[in-house]
Amino acid sequence: MTDDDRDDGLMWPPNLLKDIQDVSEQATRQQQEALQQLLLGGGGTPNPDLGDISDQVGAMTQMATFKTRIQSGGRISVPDAEREALDIQEGDIVQTVVVPVKRNRDDD
User: Fold this and answer.
1) Is the N or C terminus of the chain more exposed, i.e. has fewer CB atoms within 10 Å?
2) CB-hemisphere CA count at 13 Å for 65?
3) What is this structure's pTM?
4) Where are the domains positioned within the chain?
């Protein structure tokens, strides 16, 4: 019995897993190159439109996710714990992303 004759339970061609790994590694390299292009531009110097990358990374670590209700006049409240954790106070400017999660009304 040769290696070609025996059934070792493989459902896929032998090189398929290697091909998948190669494609995954290539995609990872392309993503890294695209990110480098975005952050550093074509010449390897920081992109002035993005500011200092350390500022960008630092900003991503200063985020909070929470649920709140829309109040009268479209107002939302940032819970005390998040305000304290992010060191934000009345009058500070913050960026908000709103994603509806539940509606408390009948859609007739």
Assistant:
1) C
2) 4
3) 0.41
4) 12-47, 52-88
Decide if 46 contacts 39 (C-beta within 8 A): yes
Distance of alpha carbon 48 from alpha carbon 41, whole angstroms: 9
Q: What is the pLDDT of residues 44-80, one digit of tens each?
A: 555 555 555 556 555 555 677 888 889 999 999 999 9
**pLDDT at position 102 over 80:** no
pLDDT for the residue 98: 83
CB 59 within 8 A of CB 50: no
In this structure, which amino acid lies at residue 79?
P
**Degrees to nearest 5, angle at CA 63 with 93 and 35:** 105
